[in-house]
Amino acid sequence: MITLYGVHRSRALRCIWALEEMGLAYRLVPVMQAFRLADPAAPDAPFNTRSADFLALNPAGSIPVLEEDGVVLAESLAINLFLAQRHGGPIGAADPAEAARIAQWTLFAATEIEPRSHAILMNRVQLPPDQRSEAKVVDAIAALRRPFAVLEQVLAQGHPVGGRFTVADIALAETVRYAQPAPEAFEGAPHLKAWLAACQARPAYRTILARRDAEPAL
Ligand SMILES: N[C@@H](CCC(=O)N[C@@H](CS)C(=O)NCC(=O)O)C(=O)O
Questions:
Q1: Is the CATH number 1.10.4160.10 carried by domain 96-202?
Q2: Keyword annotations for this protein (predicted)?
Q3: Which CATH architecture has domain 2-89?
Q4: Is 80 a pocket residue for ligand 1 (Cβ < 6 Å)?
Q5: Distance from the CA of 153 to the center of ligand 1, in angstroms?
Q6: Among the listed ranges 74-78, 85-89, 121-125, 209-213, which one has the minimum average pLDDT value?
Q7: Residues in Cβ contact with 197 at an 8 Å cutoff, skipping those fewer than 6 apart
Q8: What percent of the chain has pLDDT over 90?
Q9: Does the CA dihedral 36-41-44-47 come out positive or negative?
Q10: Which position has the higher pLDDT, 7 or 88?
Q11: In the chain, what are the domain boundaries?
Q12: Could you give the residue ranges of the DSSP H alpha helices within 133-187?
């Protein structure tokens, strides 16, 4: 049995998306981010990223964590690579060259996209208004210009790997999504916008977004 620790309103969403696309049975154990709780150590606090039992699974104290047949794994994108390798199917790699390309775009998402797009999400949406910095948004948009131009060129030809939707699309779509609160970052990138809309229109994604919206926000 696959167990995923996390909540939909977190980077666990990308793993839930992969699990749903693969049609795998899994158990989702809710683990709340500690920073969303007034007192994560309170006796009545929900299971959270500072709970001792969770830190035993992931000393980094972050969600998601996957557990399957004794394998305990943190890092959302590593989890998706593992799931794709172990359970295969069309969203995984057909051969070692595809596996390498999936790794390439997953690392591109983690290094070139996510730090910048996450800064946009934080400073346009998630931080309390008095802590937001529009200067950080401007810097992030500028830093995304080149990687977005790369994606625009690649996605004009179709999916990044194998001409079909794979876990590379999930890694890229879920990190590019964080930049959506800055529509100006997508100017001059019609293929990137169309590809993202198509990814987000997939039935599995619609399903998990509905579940995310139904999840208590705290
Ligand atoms: N690089 C990690 C980042 C994980 C991460 O930062 N998760 C956040 C939620 S999206 C978290 O668990 N924060 C908990 C905390 O700071 O207490 C991954 O992709 O899994």
A1: no
A2: Transferase
A3: 3-Layer(aba) Sandwich (3.40)
A4: no
A5: 30
A6: 85-89
A7: none
A8: 98
A9: positive
A10: 7
A11: 2-89, 96-202
A12: 134-155, 167-176
